[in-house]
Amino acid sequence: MNLATGLMRYGQDWRMHRRLYKEGFRATVVPNYQDVLSSKAEQFVTNLRQNPNSFVDHIRTYSAATIMATVYGYDIAPTNDRFVDLAEQSVGTLSDAVHPSTVVVNVLPFLRHLPLKFPIFMFQRIARRTRGILNEMRTVPYDFVKNNVLAEKGKSSFLAKLLEDHTINGGDKRQEEVIKDVVTTAYVAGADTTVSALVTFVLAMALHPEIQKRAQNNLDVVVGKGRLPTYADCSDLPYIEAVLRETLRWSPVVPLGIFHASFVDDMIDGHFIPKGTTVISNIWAMTRDETVYPEPESFIPDRFLTEDGTCNEDEMMLPFGFGRRICAGLHFARLTVWMALASILSQFDIGEPEDETGRPIKSLADIAYSDGLISHTSPFRCAIKPRMK
Ligand code: HEM
């Protein structure tokens, strides 16, 4: 089982994974998910109206709901959904699997031979626990969709389409196993990353009321107040796009990317990189390069606008990685985050933030972000109020 595409070695199996992602998540296909995203954004706004203090929970539900609906055609229950519970456990265990203590084993492989009782090297125990949960996540939702496809019922989805195109009408067992891995990775890779980006967005707006106001004006003029923004509005809302780019830059979701290894001996800027070297892409540092992004700790959407107010060429792709291993879901991720942030701005005012002890948060420096593969803010509070009654 090759559950995490991002952790696979480059080769034929990985190429097969990427081909399947392309079928469901390339730039020209993603707009087809607009209706699903719109209905989930509406539900999100309703939840936020009912209980604004639980905004992080609603963001979690929105992220899970969009990806579950897109990948499996499955509408999650408002609470205690069995697939979401399973998926959250899978995300937790996969995140543990790239915990520093497990990563160090990849860098220093001889550590694998230390006895289990060495507490710092928890990777063997994690691997055992992870396997069971991931296996369940891999088969339960898959069987649900496959049975629906065979019975010619259920909603259309990324998985249903893959099954129709590749297995139901012929296709081999191996292909079916690859499809299982691909759809499971899509959930695991997509849900928590989207949560991180959206919570950072709420923090950015809470800290910058003037930017919030300007973004709201942009939406009011182009979209009006009677409906939520959609993908069709994107190109008319350059300031909203600039806010999205700055959110992704200001606090990158995956600050150190996914570790890779060099395939061959190489020379870069006069440094010799032997074959097999672990390569860590420090996305966080790149988004803080002062020669490209002056005052990098400040939240300045204008850095992505030209003088005539249109978006410039820097689409802020750095947070999605590089080259052939660049995030396979980036177009879907951008649209999912865009839909939620534009919906929040059109419907709500976000007040000043404070930490859990009531201490005001004045800048990014006042709030901690978690370690680990995906970086999350520590908890904070802010008043979220409807703009219209
Ligand atoms: C804001 C949301 C997201 C961010 C910031 C993000 C970021 C990243 C980053 C930094 C990588 C590593 C790239 C590298 O190794 O150079 C990655 C890989 C990946 N992402 Fe995302 N991601 C997001 C959402 C998603 C979504 C929604 C999906 C699926 C629908 C997804 C699927 C993947 C996959 C499959 C890989 C592994 C690619 C490979 O190794 O070939 N991601 N992502």
TrEMBL record:
The keyword Nuclease does not apply. GO terms for molecular function: heme binding; iron ion binding; monooxygenase activity; oxidoreductase activity, acting on paired donors, with incorporation or reduction of molecular oxygen. It comes from Marasmius oreades. Heme binds at residue 327. SUPFAM superfamilies: Cytochrome P450. This is Cytochrome P450. Belongs to the cytochrome P450 family. Gene3D superfamilies: Cytochrome P450 (1.10.630.10). The keyword Cytoplasm does not apply. InterPro entries: Cyt_P450, Cyt_P450_CS, Cyt_P450_E_grp-I, Cyt_P450_sf, Cytochrome_P450_fung. Its cofactor is heme. Pfam families: p450. Keywords: Heme, Iron, Metal-binding, Monooxygenase, Oxidoreductase. Pathway: Secondary metabolite biosynthesis. It comes from the Eukaryota.
